[in-house]
Design a protein that fits this description.
61% helix, transmembrane helix, Heat Shock Protein 90, five-stranded mixed β-sheet, transmembrane, elongated, Sig_transdc_His_kin_internal, two-stranded antiparallel sheet
């Protein structure tokens, strides 16, 4: 059981209580073993000794809390040697305690009547007591980390259920949508080949999105989809838009959860301005897929560049992507976005997603 909890006043009073307790135990052992009267000596010396014990306890508490936060900061990984951890604690107590005692005796704040014997006695009492105190703090930190881990797991489960619900909603009567597209397709005159081709592309894209979203697909399939989606989007600005795609050719045996790059590509087409340039790079290095995409911004609209970047970062598509990545690739992905500037290209918005497979 922890003596201190994060929501309890004892978290702040605990070091004082432990410092007082440790000092009184020291007094009991030293006075009674020497057959002296308990708390014998001047009140000034004992008051100073009590204050030093309390202050020492607060200093160690601050140091140990920072140390424990580093050790157990990642709720999913506890990778520390307990023996080395406690050895470091003992060394820390010895290194901090003895100079404090020596300085206090030197200035006449405390009285060490038996010299080295008293030093040994103080260490013999304080080291076990403060190891016990560290253990209580450590258990508190573990309890907090495990509670945070349970909350994180429950959140992941909740997000997964929400994602499944969204999937069910997106799949609701998909045949109605395809039938509607089929009806529109046959209402278009045969001479309007561009419109018919757009309907065909849209139908293929929707079919891929609806039926392949919940299981892995080959990377080759995903690249075919990306090329089709880019081709479909380019029809909006066929003359002004320049799309450059640099994709590694060999993806044999690589499988991935689909549509993870879709929101980033969609953002690029949505916010492209200025030179109307979009660059897409998809690389495979050491079992890690790197997807990078950048779109140009309008350099003449300086006040709006930050707004565009902020909108791109805060869109619902990107938020859904972040949640989905946490579900399908926990601790195996990195998503970053930023605005860049160089003299040749001007301002551009860059997004990069790395996935370990």
């Amino acid at each position: 059981m922890s003596i201190i909890t994060r929501s309890n006043p004892l978290r702040y009073l605990g070091p004082a209580i432990w410092g007082i307790t440790s000092f009184n135990i020291l007094r009991v052992v030293t006075d009674l073993t020497k057959k002296d009267q308990f708390w014998s000596g001047g009140i000034r010396i004992h008051s100073i000794g009590l204050f030093i014990s309390i202050a020492f306890c607060y200093v160690l508490t601050a140091l140990w809390r920072r140390r424990l936060d580093k050790i157990f900061g990642d709720v999913s990984v506890f990778s520390v040697s307990v023996a080395r951890e406690y050895l470091a604690v003992i060394i820390q107590i010895v290194i901090l305690l003895n100079p404090v005692i020596y300085s206090a005796e030197h200035f006449g704040w405390v009285y060490m009547g038996d010299g080295y014997i008293d030093y040994i006695l103080v260490n013999a009492i304080y080291i076990p007591l403060f190891l016990l105190y560290y253990t209580l703090m450590r258990n508190e930190q573990i309890d907090h980390a495990m509670a945070s881990n349970r909350i994180y797991v429950e959140k992941i489960k909740s997000d997964k259920l929400s994602a499944e619900l969204q999937l069910l909603k997106s799949q609701y009567h998909p045949h109605f949508l395809f039938n509607a597209l089929n009806t529109v397709y046959f209402q278009i005159e045969d001479t309007n080949t561009l419109a018919k081709r757009s309907i065909e592309q849209l139908s293929e894209l929707l079919r891929y999105q609806i039926y392949n979203v919940d299981e892995k697909v080959s990377m080759d399939q995903e690249i075919v989809y990306i090329r089709s989606y880019v081709s479909f989007q380019r029809q909006r600005l066929p003359e002004r838009l320049n799309v450059q795609m640099n994709i590694d050719p060999d993806w044999q045996g690589i499988r991935i959860f689909p549509l993870l790059f879709q929101p980033l590509i969609e953002n690029a087409f949505k916010y492209v301005r200025g030179k109307y340039e979009i660059k897409i790079d998809i690389k495979l290095r050491d079992r890690e897929i790197t997807f990078g995409i950048s779109n140009s911004l309008d350099d003449r609209l300086n006040p709006d560049k930050g707004k565009i970047a902020k909108k791109a970062d805060s869109g619902s598509g990107l938020a859904h992507l972040v949640r989905r990545l946490a579900l399908v690739y926990p601790n195996a992905h990195k998503l970053s976005t930023e605005m860049q500037f160089n003299q040749q290209e001007g301002h551009c918005y860059l997004a990069e997603l790395r996935i370990k497979i």
